[in-house]
Each structure stands twice: as structure tokens, then as C-alpha cells.
Amino acid sequence: MEQELALLRKQIFALHPLSEEEWADFSAIWQPVQYKRKTILTTAGETERYLYFVTEGVQRAFYIDDKHPEATVVFSYAPSFSGIVDSFLTQQPSRYFLETLTTSKMLRTSYQQVQQLMDKYHNIERWVRLSVSWVMMGLLERQIELLSYSAEEKFRILLKRSPHVLQLIPHKYLASYMGIDASTFSKLMASVKIS
């Protein structure tokens, strides 16, 4: 677990460093977990109890209901955080599912543990706020892409930002994430030069 915690520390400190005491308490709340591929970690309608830090594998959050096709909202993979963040932070029922696409190894902590440390340390609360701010910025950029860009522009942005996902994530989920159908995605794979 030392390597996983070192990876977590690197992610945390890259955004906002903690004191050694804060880090000691923060690192102590994480437990290693492992899941098989296609495991549902969070179901729509239940409240997200955990925050995950991915050390291996790929996960996705998705939305589905009786009237709309399944829509992939976000992917997570090492080294990044995972979970249904809005449900976790508000402790309200999730509208989304979270599933593993591959066998996944993660560190996991609970809402109560994070909340206790945010109450104890202003600096940890500040790190959470800064993290949410960066997530919000990314979500707004993604909204612009979904609403304003052509399928080819979205595909090129995906290739520029995260070219490795073409090997990690099934293309049907990437198409869903981009808001295009699978056949359009296949055509783009054939016609857009991947460098």
C-alpha cells in the first residue's frame, strides 16, 4: 500500500500541499480495495458513501432511464479520483451508476472520514474545495464541447487530451461519452489520423 499512498500523496500535493500532520491523518483513512470487471460500485438512487483513488483499472459513471439511451458521463483511471462526487459531497441520492470497466484496484475512504478531517483541518477542507473547483472547470469545458463542437472536433479533442483511452476503454463507451453514436465513432476512427 506504500506505493499507492505515494501516488495519492503526489496527486494531493500537486494541487495543494498538506502539512506532515495533515498528511499523516489523511493518508490513514484510506483502505485498499479491489473489484472485478463490470462491478457496479454505486447504483442510481443510492447515496455515494465512498471516495476512491484509482491505482489500476478503468471505471465509468453513467446515466440511464426508461426514456433515454445510456449516457457515459465520465471515466476514471489511474492516477485519479473516482466516485459519484456530487452525491458524495451532498450526501444526496445519486442519479448515476458507477461501474468498473476492468479489474480495478483503488484506495477507498468514507464520507464520514473525509468530513471529520475537513472539520479538523482547514487545509484539507481547502484541498477539497480546490479539487471541486478544478472538476467544475473541466465539466464546463466538456459542456462546451458537447453543445458546440462537431463529432470530428470532439474526437480530435479526445485524441489530444487522452489518446491512451482508445486502448483502455471500449469504443461504444467513448462514443456515448462524446454524445455520438457508435457508427459515427467507427467512421472517425477510420478517417481521422491518429498520431
Automatic annotation (TrEMBL):
This is Crp/Fnr family transcriptional regulator. Gene3D superfamilies: Jelly Rolls (2.60.120.10). InterPro entries: cNMP-bd_dom, cNMP-bd_dom_sf, RmlC-like_jellyroll. The lineage of its organism: Bacteria, Pseudomonadati, Bacteroidota, Chitinophagia, Chitinophagales. SUPFAM superfamilies: cAMP-binding domain-like. Residues 33-121 form the Cyclic nucleotide-binding domain.
